[in-house]
Specification:
Strand content: 15-25%
Helix content: 40-55%
Order of helices and strands: EEHEEH
Largest sheet: 2 strands, antiparallel
Number of strands: 4
Distance between the termini: 45 Å
Strand order of the largest sheet: 1-2
Radius of gyration: 20 Å
């Protein structure tokens, strides 16, 4: 998909299609992080604290249940 920037006041805006936003699970309330390597722009949703906490719990449980397996796999 190719896009052009749109002048908005003294700034430029990138207008994203509804289909793309839906696919990325982004809406008007989603906080976004924008970064660059000097050539490429990366726009991604900021991870929610609730989701990060849930993932941490799952990882901790996996380590408790499978610590021996993980250790053997690492060797």
């Amino acid at each position: 998909m190719r896009k052009k920037l749109v002048k908005t006041g003294n700034s430029l805006a990138l207008v994203l299609d509804k289909r793309l936003l839906k696919e990325a699970n982004i809406d008007a309330e989603t906080e976004l992080e924008v970064s660059t390597d000097g050539r490429v722009l990366v726009v991604s949703p900021v991870p929610s604290p609730k989701r990060s906490a849930k993932l941490s719990k799952v990882v901790e449980q996996a380590h408790r249940n499978y610590a021996g397996v993980f250790k053997r796999l690492a060797e």
